[in-house]
Write the structure tokens for this entry.
Amino acid sequence: MARLAKVHGGDLPKLNFGRFSTRSLFELAKDNAVSGCIFETYSAFKAIEQSQKASDPVLRETMKKIAIDESKHAELAWDIHRYLWQKLSISEQAEIEQAQKEALKSLLTPSTFHLSHKERILLGLNKNTASLFFANWHSIHNQKMSA
Ligand SMILES: [Fe+2]
């Protein structure tokens, strides 16, 4: 991905995963519900779209591989979510649902709004991708929870 970004004049940000810490089951469930169920699922959703719509064939092929990876990450998160959900209290579940709603809303102001039309075509990114994901969230959620 870094090589592809460089070929097209871009760069990847440095990743920082922070310090290792011990968390409660609730904290783990909340983090997984947001980072895994929302952001990994959205990453898979977006990568699938890019694998179909990017004008650059190398990018399309790369995004196909990334879509498979992101889908696996999302499925793992949903497996964990279903397992942990039953161990949470009603108030913990409500707090996690609220955190997911806030995470979903955050997707509606993505960092890709600054991209030009030409860049969007190249990358296969649609301005409405996040809105589409947001609009379909309930059916995605229900499907994943009943898997
Ligand atoms: Fe991922």
In short: The helical segments are 2-7, 25-53, 57-85, 90-107, 117-123, 129-135, 137-145. Residues 26-107 form one domain. Residues 40, 43, 70, 73 surround fe (ii) ion (CB under 6 Å). The chain has a mean pLDDT of 90.
